Structure formats: structure tokens, C-alpha cells
Amino acid sequence: QVQLVESGGGLVQAGGSLRLSCAASGSTLRSYAMGWFRQAPGKEREFVAAMDWSASNTFYADSVKGRFTISRDNAKNTGYLQMNSLKPEDTAVYYCAAGTWVASSSVHDYHYWGQGTQVTVSS
């Protein structure tokens, strides 16, 4: 099992940047595919970015492509989501998740979830 704790959320103006962290414990994060999802009030949880277990394959939701970057530091057992050029519509609670080896955009393919971190982008 792996436990995940997100951090790095906050309030930022449109056009700004944030880096979210996902600290893992109990197991090595590189044994899993990693995903980032977000959930805005009144909406379903949606896919943001994913990376396979080897970190060689990544993919992104169209809404964040070119602005967000998913990465992982094996030495720190921590995953990251670098978010640039933030927009008000990026406002949501962001969750990291770990699952099977293959990166996936489906919430059902991830077995372990963090508690979430709030990101608020003001216009």
C-alpha cells in the first residue's frame, strides 16, 4: 500500500503558477502509475494528467496541455504537478492518485488517493 499527501495549493492570480507535490509513504511511488485529478464544486472529478510507472509516458487533458507538467522525483518519493498560466477555470481541489503500472485517465484505475489540496485562481 502507498499513502499519498498533497501540498502546494493556494490562491493565485490568473496567469500565475503553482507546483503541487504528492508525497508518498509506505511504498515507492515509482512502482505505480501516477495521476492527477481535480474536482470543482458541483462537478465530477476529472482527469488532469498521468504518468506511467516508468515515467516514460505522460499524457494530459486537453484543457491543461501545454500549461501543466507531471513529474516525479524517485529520490524524494514525491510526485509533482507544475501548473503554469493558470486560469480561473482551473479552480478546484486537486488530488494525486497511484494505481496500476499503466497511466490512465479513469478514476477507476487508481487504488490510492490523497486527501486533496485546494487551488483557487482569481481573475
Write the layout of secondary structure elements.
Layout: E1 3-7, E2 10-13, E3 18-25, E4 33-39, E5 46-51, E6 58-60, E7 68-73, E8 78-83, E9 92-99, E10 110-113, E11 117-122
Parallel strand pairs: 2-11
Antiparallel strand pairs: 1-3, 3-8, 4-5, 4-9, 5-6, 7-8, 9-10, 9-11
The beta-strand count equals 11
The biggest beta sheet is recorded as: 7 strands, mixed
pLDDT averaged over residues = 96
**Could you say which structural class the secondary elements and strand pairing correspond to?**
mainly beta
| Proportion of residues in extended strands | over 45%
Helix-strand pattern: EEEEEEEEEEE
Low-confidence stretches: none
Shape: globular
Helix content range of the residues, please? under 10%
In short:
The protein has about 120 residues and is mainly β.
What does this structure look like?
This protein has 123 residues and is mainly beta. The chain has strands at residues 3-7, 10-13, 18-25, 33-39, 46-51, 58-60, 68-73, 78-83, 92-99, 110-113, 117-122. Strands 2, 4, 5, 6, 9, 10 and 11 form a 7-stranded mixed β-sheet that branches. A hairpin with a 4-residue loop joins β7 (68-73) and β8. The mean pLDDT is 96.
Features:
11 strands; 4-stranded antiparallel beta sheet; 7-stranded mixed beta sheet; single chain; 123 residues; mainly beta
